[in-house]
């Protein structure tokens, strides 16, 4: 690395102080495949157009995606205006708005204003066009379109002059019987054109503008050094460094000055980057690399390579990687369609069980506790016990077996100094000495009243006096430290799932018999239960979670919603808000805010104005189904939430709103419930404005519209209004369609405004003028004739 170029050194020095926005844990991807409407799971190219649509090229058609639906373009044989081939390699939009599409049957351009594809014809031969495979397309600063054609070379098309020039590379190819095979093509920010080949001597070439020919770009490397190298995925980073992947030799940096390529990895790095297809800069100093081994991150700053777990992708054979205007990451695969990652998902870190790697031992998280060293203890239904170190993100497993845990299904956890109390399902109560790793065991003995009353232990709690309380499927037990035995305090015959102490009163949440309390000062037990005739009663007998906020308010989560307990008035006050799910699994709080996990996502509830925000899998959660009482607020301020699919961790102070104002588009137009091309009815007025002009008998219309924000499109909202018909806005939430029947002739203006997933609205939105023409017998001429006829009739 002694010869590393100065630009790269400057980049590294600059980036040392810059934190990476990419998470330490794996990306959480949303998958789009054929079952979601994608035309094929083999993806070759991805772009975003100026309107905000995502275009995806596959081996069976071109797809336009609005976040909810795919519109597929396929060839219609010889029909004019259709795409020439279904094998789509490379969509590309030029500065004039045309979308160029490279196919297995040549090159065409799509004009959104006409909704048609036009073949690029050979100048001077209007009936002739390129019929070979077109793989790479780009545009230089002069507006010329450059594209590579298999075994022909590179073409440069001057749109203004309609001139097409071929650069054939014949002097460089190894075989005279075959033309050049270009595997990467790129135009950098200085307008330098680059091309690489896998069947030529010098491998990498750049356009010499003085001679208007391609010349070898690695003149200072000999044949032995270049042997076996093929450069894929050429890209330039923010500091002007040129990078390229290779088939089996890892990542290269291209030194323009010294005309040399430097390999960045040793043997191990090359093994994890087998068959690189794409390289892109995700953010300054961080490259993303797509290969047959998945997606990898390379930190230029630290010269560190990290390969993402293949489990997070729908398929590990990664081809195109693309970053959209919103910061979202799109990853195309060879067999698994498209994977999408939202930077909004940086908010949450998900830990899932992966049998092939060191990870959490189970996915169903049932209980959490923090020890004095800040270690997080995690009980699972399906993988026994884990200790998690937040500083290293490493898990230590504690298995079930002789001399170990009595059973692998762990529920209640409670740290007591160096001891960890562990409740198990059917295995009784275990106590782990975390210093020695030794266990002691407590089980239920029916004839011994000093033993716990059942072997299925669901909750363990240490009160303010240091007393250990144990909840089972049968009742509530209290541990006597001096005698090392238990007192069976009360039998209730249902599971006690959660406990807490507030103002010297113990509260016990039960699944089926409401809320029990024990006043430690008076020794009095009370039961609170649901009573349909009493509006001040508990709202449900199935209580799942308990929490006391900083104001001393006791919050109670049930399967029927939330309420707070007014101790002085001895009444329960329901929370007057409707969440996506009323099943409240866990509650914690900060100043004026409640964090509430449910069976349909995570809620951030603002107490001041009774508003809330919902976080779902689209925001990066591993699951939206959170498990009862499986939550923890650590001393470091992190919130840990157990779910039916892994552990989710986040810092509530780091929650940010998506600021992106989404473009609003009409994504589909229907007449009498049949989709038609709106382009055929579009007109231009004398001011150059486009409008929709329809005959009088095509007045049953449906317009589908989209807010082009991809973070969590299922959360985007919209409203519409047809001026000239509607008096008020129709606020339709997550719906995206408006239908009007039997519109009278006249002029209307259709308006749509929409929001992104976080409620940031595009108030200007979309405005479309619609004119319904009058029938000829209602034209001005006919009305004059009618009037004349009436006058003549009256006179004569």
Describe the model.
There is one protein chain. This protein is mostly beta strands and 796 residues long. The protein has a six-stranded mixed beta sheet, with no helix packed on it. Strands 1-30-29-28 form a four-stranded antiparallel beta sheet, with no helix packed on it.
User: What strand line-up does the widest sheet have?
Assistant: 61-62-68-67-64-65
How confident is the prediction overall: mean pLDDT? 91
Number of strands: 68
Shape designation: flat
Estimated structural class: mainly beta
Largest sheet: 6 strands, mixed
- Uncertain segments of ≥5 residues (pLDDT<50)? 1-25
Counted by DSSP, the helix tally is 4
Helix content: under 10%
> Based on the structure given, which CATH architecture of the largest domain is correct?
7 Propeller
How much is the radius of gyration in Å?
33 Å
What is the percentage of strand-forming residues? over 45%
CATH superfamily annotation of the largest domain: YVTN repeat-like/Quinoprotein amine dehydrogenase
N-to-C CA distance: 106 Å
Name of the top-level CATH class of the largest domain: Mainly Beta
- CATH T-level fold name of the largest domain: Methylamine Dehydrogenase, Chain H
